């Protein structure tokens, strides 16, 4: 775990790109226009890890004249959505005529906010988009690797654990935060595997062996009746509560989950795992908001059942393993894949060697991706393919693997 923390620290200090930008706050997190709309502002930006620092050029000049230091605005882009816009024209206002800006990209970082950035050239535009996406991808990969270490340490290497799913399902009380929103909601979540689910992996299957001690009593099988019919594809559903009347209305659906990991919280007390992050495709329910029918993320905080220590990481991992099993991620439901050379492994591309603090890919290599492609899973798949090619000698390699 110590090496994992060193990698996280290296990522936080890695400079992905820096340069001049013209920026504008189009919307605040609540979706409203800013009250003190300053329009387009000349700025200097630097992306260090997933922290984008922005210095206002006018404020720098004023601070220099007054003999003081100008401080930047910091923006966390770890969960950001980055879109290429091309050109953007602002409407005419009482303060001035309409203006057209070229090489523009947008960033959504919190709630319904929208930040616009205009770059001095097409090359700078491609570099900024590649840097932002690569930094976020590196961050999510490190969180996948941290999760793998956590499973190996907590669940005895995680290779032979029985699935928490009962007849292909697991459900319970959770708090969730939906991409594009800022509030947390207390709701009921149900994870359902697909029709290909093998009953031999199921916590409801008995072959004479005891049920896992990590399986709560409410989620242990009753062995009464026959298993329900399974859907053709796995999905996650969110309900208002577990009451029968609330189960008739699905508030949110998440399908095609391609990534699921714990988010580490690093503090003076050490490292803690407080929540899960899932990436998939939302349904057309109203709760999805602006992310309806789109690829996005869902942050989940499982609530411990009575008698279960809420600080016990095994409770969090029980939910995580259930999601991995349902969506067949990282080698589950058979066995976790810890091979750092296998693209399906959560440890794929684990950085080693004298230059491991640089992590795995350079921004210049990531610039070969189409900046117009904003689908999270597609960008992640292409970056993973580039990394695999690089590890196999098809790109210049600066690491000892």
UniProtKB/TrEMBL annotation:
Note the PROSITE patterns from the entry.
PH_DOMAIN (PS50003)
Region Disordered, residue ranges: 208-233
Q: Which Pfam families match?
A: PH_26
Stretches with biased composition (Polar residues): 209-219
Domain PH: from-to ranges: 14-137
User: Any stretches that span the bilayer, and where are they?
Assistant: none
User: What is this protein identified as?
Assistant: PH domain-containing protein
Question: Which source organism?
Answer: Antrodiella citrinella
